[in-house]
Specification:
Largest sheet of chain A: 7 strands, mixed
Number of domains of chain A: 2
Structural class of chain A: alpha+beta
Largest interface: A-B, 64 and 79 residues
CATH architecture of the largest domain in chain A: Roll
CATH superfamily of the domain at 97-271 in chain B: MetI-like
Oligomer: heterodimer
CATH class of the largest domain in chain A: Alpha Beta
Number of helices of chain B: 13
Shape of chain A: globular
Order of helices and strands of chain B: HHHHHHHHHHHHH
Radius of gyration of chain B: 24 Å
Distance between the termini of chain B: 10 Å
Largest sheet of chain B: none
Shape of chain B: flat
CATH class of the domain at 97-271 in chain B: Mainly Alpha
Chain lengths: 529, 308
């Protein structure tokens, strides 16, 4: 039979194909770290994904570091720095004892090569180049001194330079590989060396035995403890807890709250919830589309939202309730926000709606005004439990007679389409980051993600000044005003601070995360047998 | 036979061209693209995004982009990823091996299991074994891969600890995903096999053969199976489409690399050249396999060799 011979032949091919696998040598300590999405690319100078920092934060050192305990900028590859009085020139004095993984010596020329690469339009940087803000040029003063010159003062510069996207790569490797291939052959100075990246399958790091220039906040000042770390991509949330329970992975981020709750009693597994600085899970309210063009309706929605109930039901109480446009762990967060903007008062919501002439005239349970039902279109992305939060909002608001139309979109580009079309009253989006200047994109009248469509000259002026002022006390005052202004205008419904539910097997110790919250300090991790 | 061959190949090429054109039209008419989304995440302004789109040629008129794409395709060039700048052919090649491995193994599982279940439900009609076979077939057809996949991981990896739940590498990693995907494809094969055999069993030629006093085993081997299994060739080829769709879910669930996951990620990122590359590759694979199945069918069944 022909069919039979085809079957036999395919079986043989298969046997050959699968026969090629191998096993790791047992004497090496090795752990599997689960990433939660498959970034489109892994070159930190080019790509924008937050996920890439989980492995690469330990491959690259940065000129400065942000101390996760004190929130201060501390020396990294730069021993020290001086900022000119006009805020335009940053002079960095570099360490002289640093070597890249490929043996190249670290100096000012290496920093220059990185700046050249990031700012070259041909590189196609999707994030790093924008993090440099008003960068103008650099000047090499001597072998170990480099100046970065800006065209205008830019307060977030040190924060940018502390991030993996501006990590310093070996100039030799940058020359050897082009922009499409460097991501497979990355060379830094960090505690871990990049071994290989097989798209869709794994990214592997190996211990750098020569590492001796750790930033001072690291508890392990020498080379890391674990020999090899393999990163795999667990895009399906349901498979994450299973892989941990079966021992296929030892550390994993972004567990589902329900799985975290279930694993709480499991002695073989330990939970590491980490609050992430930046924006909370939030819904922007469209100030240009009825009925949310009316501030009273926006306030009514804020009052109508019971955030405690949402946090309890959706996040199993793993997240703090959010009260403003910044998460509580972000720099310059205003601690008075919970007192000033508590909201959660359904009676107040009902009377606000009534004051605007909404009543249920025809007795169908939905409020109307001039025969028009009170309808709110809500757009939610698929991530961060937003659809579940949307459903709770729907049921909470419907209790007050609001007709809620929940629209779920599948991806960020689709969310962006919905925002462009403008057919929404509320839309969920949040970015994370340590410097509050991330608010600019969302609240400047010409911000690329100004989805509340706010156009407020006061807010614009405050945001501009807060980005260009270097004085910390002044910045704190400006961001205090900004946070209050945003809530006074009722531009956003904050829901909960973002908490990343990390988990690790019980034999992992020393797991801690950097100031960004997302990135583990891998050099401190130990695997006990 | 030669005219049949020429006609079959001609229609295959037409289908491929249609798919390429349709894929181009639907994908590139979508608003927004990968680069826009990534730059927004990266903190770019509207002007910076517009400048980048222009430099990538994304703002050129659609007919120009279409002709550029077609001519590239004829030279084996599917363009470059908007996000990484890597050639699409290279990106696909990096993933193709793993999917081929999964698809082949699943097809073997599906064919063996499907034929077995089909034979059992037709041959042992009315018995307990026959009913069980029918029940399992229904289960394979009606449950989603996602569900059986989770159950399989939970049972074989978490509870029993027999097999690794995730990853790719050796044969052990292939067992669960290929078993789950193969199980679902087996459903259709079993259904068609069973129906074909039951129909063949009641054919006039069987009555004649039985009247001539042929023994049951000879009757099954020489007559019923030969006629009844013909549709199986087509259904196995047709299952390739389902198989390609199934790899998307299977690869994601079992954390395997492959074309299915590449496609899903590229769709979510709107990395259109990559999506288009995978769609075109899928269409080519599907058209070629179906053409081959038709030819195989014609070889196996002399009745179809007549031109007409």
């Amino acid at each position: 039979m022909r069919l039979l011979s085809i079957l036999i032949a395919t079986g043989l091919i298969l046997a050959v194909l699968v026969g090629c696998g191998g096993e790791a040598t047992p004497s090496v300590t090795r752990l599997v770290y689960g990433l939660t999405l498959m970034p489109s690319g892994f070159d930190p100078h080019i790509h924008a994904s937050a996920e890439l920092g989980i492995p690469l934060r330990s491959v690259y050192d940065t000129l400065v570091y942000l101390d996760p305990e004190t929130g201060e900028f501390v020396p990294g590859l730069a021993e020290g720095w001086v900022i000119s009085d006009d805020g335009l020139t940053y002079t960095f004095t570099l360490r002289q004892d640093v070597t890249f993984h490929d043996g190249t010596h670290f100096d000012a020329a290496a920093v220059a090569a990185n700046l050249d690469r990031i700012t070259d339009p041909a590189t196609g940087s999707q994030k790093a180049v924008y993090m440099l803000g008003p960068y103008d040029h650099y000047e090499i003063v001597d072998n170990y001194t480099i100046r970065i010159v800006l065209s205008e003062p830019y307060a977030p510069l040190l924060d940018s330079l502390s991030q993996v996207y501006l990590g310093i790569a070996s100039p030799t490797a940058l020359e050897q590989y082009d922009t499409a291939t460097y991501q497979f052959h990355q060379v830094g100075t960090g505690p871990y060396k990049f071994v290989e990246y097989v798209p869709g399958d794994r990214l592997v790091l190996a211990r750098n035995p020569d590492y001796a220039w750790a930033p001072r906040f690291m508890q392990n000042q020498g080379p890391p403890y674990v020999d090899e770390i393999e990163f795999r991509f667990f895009e399906d949330p349901a498979s994450r807890a299973l892989a941990l329970e079966s021992g296929d992975a030892q550390i994993m981020g972004e567990l589902l709250p329900s799985d975290a709750e279930r694993l709480r009693g499991n002695s073989a597994i330990q939970l590491y919830p980490v609050s992430i600085p930046g924006q909370p899970l939030q819904f922007f309210l469209n100030t240009r589309r009825p009925p949310t063009d009316d501030i009273a309706i926006r306030e009514a929605l804020l009052y109508a939202t019971n955030r405690n109930a949402i946090v309890n039901a959706v996040f199993q109480s793993f997240s703090p309730v959010a009260y403003g446009p910044l998460a509580a762990v972000t720099r310059f967060y205003d601690p008075e926000m919970p007192i000033l903007y508590p909201f959660n008062d359904q009676g107040q919501a009902a009377s606000l709606l009534a004051s605007r002439g909404y009543e249920d005239a025809d007795g169908d349970g939905i409020l109307e005004r001039d025969g028009e039902p009170l309808r709110i279109d809500v757009v939610v992305p698929p991530w961060g439990m937003s659809p579940e939060v949307g459903q709770l909002l729907e049921s909470q608001w419907e209790l007050l007679g609001i007709d809620v139309n929940l629209i779920q979109v599948p991806s960020f580009p689709a969310l962006r389409d919905a925002a462009e079309e403008g057919e929404y009253n509320a839309i969920a989006i949040n970015f994370t980051g340590t410097d509050p200047s991330l608010l600019n994109q969302f609240y400047l009248s010409d911000g690329a993600l100004n989805w509340s469509k706010v156009d407020d000259p006061d807010l614009d002026a405050l945001l501009y000044e807060a980005t260009s002022t270097l004085d910390e006390a002044r910045r704190a005052e400006l961001y205090r005003q900004i946070q209050r202004r945003i809530m006074d205008l009722a531009l956003v419904i904050p829901i909960r601070d973002y908490v990343n539910l990390n988990v690790a097997s019980a034999n992992i110790t020393g797991l801690r995360f950097d100031a960004q919250g997302f990135f583990p300090i891998l050099a401190e991790v130990q695997l006990n047998r | 036979m030669r005219r049949y061959l020429i006609r079959r190949i001609g229609s295959m090429l037409l289908v491929m061209w249609l798919v390429v054109t349709l894929a181009f039209a639907t994908l590139w008419l979508l608003p927004g693209d990968a680069i826009e989304a990534q730059l927004l995440i990266g903190g770019a302004t509207e002007e910076q995004i517009e400048a980048r789109r222009e430099s990538l040629g994304l703002d050129d008129p659609a007919p120009i982009r279409y002709l550029r794409y077609l001519s590239g395709l004829l030279h084996g060039d599917m363009g470059r990823s908007l996000l990484t700048g890597q050639p699409v052919t290279q990106i696909i090649a990096q993933q193709a091996g793993a999917t081929l491995e999964l698809a082949t193994a699943s097809l073997v599982v599906a064919t063996v299991l499907g034929l077995g279940l089909g034979l059992l439900s037709a041959g042992a009609d009315g018995s307990v074994a026959g009913s069980a076979a029918k029940w399992i077939t229904s289960l394979a057809l009606s449950t989603p891969i996602y569900w059986t996949g989770i159950i399989a991981i939970w049972l074989f990896s978490v509870v029993l600890g027999w097999l690794p739940a995730i990853g790719s590498g050796d044969l052990r990693h292939l067992v669960l995903p290929a078993g789950v995907l193969g199980f679902h494809v087996a459903g259709s094969i079993a259904r068609v096999t069973g129906a074909g055999l039951i129909e063949a069993k009641s054919g006039d030629f069987v009555t004649v053969a039985r009247a001539k006093g042929l023994r049951a085993d000879a009757l099954w081997l020489r007559h019923i199976l030969r006629v009844g299994l013909l549709p199986v060739i087509t259904i196995v080829a047709l299952q390739l489409g389902f198989l390609l769709g199934g790899t998307v879910i299977t690869e994601t669930l079992f954390v395997r690399r492959g074309i299915g996951r590449l496609l899903m990620d590229a769709i979510l990122d709107r990395d259109l050249p990559v999506v288009q590359g995978v769609v075109v590759l899928g269409a080519i694979t599907y058209s070629v396999t179906n053409a081959l199945a038709d030819l195989l069918y014609a070889l196996a069944d002399p009745r179809l060799r007549v031109d007409g």
